Every structure is written in C-alpha cells, then in structure tokens.
Amino acid sequence: MPVNQSPEYTKAELRYRAATTPADKLAGLEEMLRMVPKHKGSEKLQSQLKQKIKAAREDMQHKKKHGGGHRDLFAVSKQGAGQVTLLGAANVGKSAIVQALTDAKVEVADFPFSTHAAVPGMAHHEDAPIQLVDMPPVMDGHAQPGMMGAYRLADIILLVVDLSAIDLLDQFEQPLALLAERHLRLVSQAVLKPTTDPDDETVLLRGLVAANKCDTPGAMDNFEGMKELLDSDLTMLPVSAETDEGLDKLTATIYDLLHVIRVYSKKPGKPPDLTMPFIVPKGGTVHDVAELVHRELAQKLKTARAWGTGVHDGQQVHQTHVLSDKDVIELHF
Fold first, then answer.
1. Are 232 and 168 in contact (CB under 8 A)?
2. How is the chain split into domains, by residue range?
3. CATH architecture of 83-258
4. pLDDT tens digit string along 252-281?
5. What distance in Å separates the CA atoms of residue 13 and residue 25, rounded to the nearest whole number?
6. pLDDT, position 127
C-alpha cells in the first residue's frame, strides 16, 4: 500500500529539513511521526522515523553528558507522565511554582533572570510523576536562542502570569505572540487535531495558564477581568506559589491534559504494586504495558489477567484489551 502523505506531514518534513538545531530537528521528526498516516503501507516509514528519533535523542544526551560539541542549555530528557515546560516573563513566579511543587534546585529571587538554563523537577498528581521544567524568562517578545526548540518538544506549555502586575495582559499576550512567530499555538485540548488547511503552517501545542500570586490584594478581580478582556479558550487557573492555593488543581488539570493513564502491575500470587504505575497514553493496551516492562518479552506475551474497569476481577484479557486509569494487570510470558 503506498504512503500518500498529508499536507500536514509535508509541512512537518519541510520544517525538519529547515531546522538548524538538534532540538528543532528532533521536534520535526516527532511531528512527522505524529502526522504520518497509520496503516500497513506506512509501517516501514514509521519504523525509519522512530529510529531517527531514537538516534537524535541519544546524540543529544551523549553531547550533554560528555560535553561534546555545543551544549544545549535547554535540552531536558523527558521523564514521568509528561514534560511541562514553563513560559513567561521575568518575576511572574515560574521558579516559585517549580519550587513549590518539586525538589528542583531552582533559584527564586526578586530580580529578573535568576534562571539561566532549563531546570527540571518532578511534581506529582497523586502517584503520577509529572516533569516540570523551569526556563529563563521571555522579555518583550524575545527568547534566548534554543529555547523555542524546548517548547516544541514539551508535552504541555504552562504559561505563567502575575495577577499582581500592572502589565498583566502583556504578560499573557507577548509570549503567545512569540510562539505565533514560530507558527506555534497553544490549545487546552488533550487530543490535538491538525489543521485541514494545507496553507496553514500552525502547529498546535497543548497549553494552559497558571495565574500566579492569587493571594495578593485584588488578584482575583484582576483574574476575572483578564478572562473577560482576553476572551481566550485557554484554561486559566488562579494559583499561589506562596500559599499553595490552587496547586493541587493545577497538577490535576495538567494530568488530564496529558491524556495518559496509570496502570499497575501484579505478579502471580502477589498483591499488586501500587507504588510505581506504568504510564501509557489513553487508549493504551495490555501489549503497550508489556513493552514498557520489557520490549523483547512483550513479543512472547501469552496471557494477561486484569482488574479494574469493565472486567471481572482477574479476568483473562487479550493483549489488545484497552486499559483504563488505575487498572491492574498480571502478565504471563
């Protein structure tokens, strides 16, 4: 079966070929894989793209570890249920949010530019780990070279604004304009639907807004006024890194936006391990979890039993069985 590429795939390929940094090239490859038609005739192309993506990631990590070539200050290897990269102006509280939710070694200061490179930390929604990445600020619609590649690679972009600031609307509009210059647009949608317009080069990225410092005087009035004036479809949540107000709802919203589920494993005759869930995309199957356990053993999977949504406890299921959040599975190889 021939591979009839869509206009979206063609545009992604052109962006890949025009990329000048390793991060942008990796982003282009990942976008090509998302856009390639999924059928038997494209299996070879999908395999080639996956190999290129793996090689590109390994190359970036090798250079980062061994100092070879140019060191990318903003390249962070993804971990957990997804990577959330923070975006915003100086002193809006990006570092404070990361500090409040993770154990990352961030510098929180009253002066701008205390963050010079990407700083990752691990937050949690219940038992699901979510990687937050603090970033240097964008100022007057400008970002440091290399930062845009990190935003392209993120699973979610968290735009942070300061509800106590006079330039609150600018803090919202300028970073989004910066993304728009690179044909990037944030949407608060778990499932991204590519545009059907072949002339539209826009790439949709999942995003939401953390309106920080909601504990300050007049902050909630500013929040309501901001929502009314901007008339934006982006999800906006009032939070306070100082008092922790709204942070639990923020991580829960991020988890929902990541569009993933938690699946727990169980050994035969043993209770399930509820401490470290496997994370798979919504719609993931028993076979997907088996691949996370061991890629080669997954090919030898004989049977599986499941506990959870839509099954009787211990029911035998096929490897194509679609799992739900917090299901338990027992794999037999």
1. no
2. 7-66, 83-258, 261-332
3. 3-Layer(aba) Sandwich (3.40)
4. 999 999 999 999 999 999 999 998 899 999
5. 10
6. 94
Q: DSSP H helical segments within 134-218, as ranges?
A: 147-153, 168-181
pLDDT(144) > 80: yes
Per the listing, tokens 């539209």 go with 200
- What are residue 188's phi and psi, to 5 degrees? -90, 65
Q: Long-range pairs for 198-201 at CB < 8 Å and ≥24 separation?
A: 198/7, 198/11, 201/11, 201/15
Angle formed at CA 104 by CA 103 and CA 105, multiple of 5 degrees: 115
Token representation of residue 9: 């795939």
Question: What are the structure tokens assigned to 91, written together?
Answer: 């002193």
Which neighbouring-strand residues pair with 279? 262
Residues 19-36 pLDDT 10s: 666 777 788 788 888 877
CATH of range 261-332; options 3.10.20.30, 2.40.128.280, 3.20.20.80, 3.40.50.300: 3.10.20.30
Instruction: Map residue 232 onto helix, strand or coil.
Output: coil
Query: Can you tell me which residue has the tokens 């390639």?
Result: 36
Query: Which of helix, strand or coil describes residue 276?
Result: strand
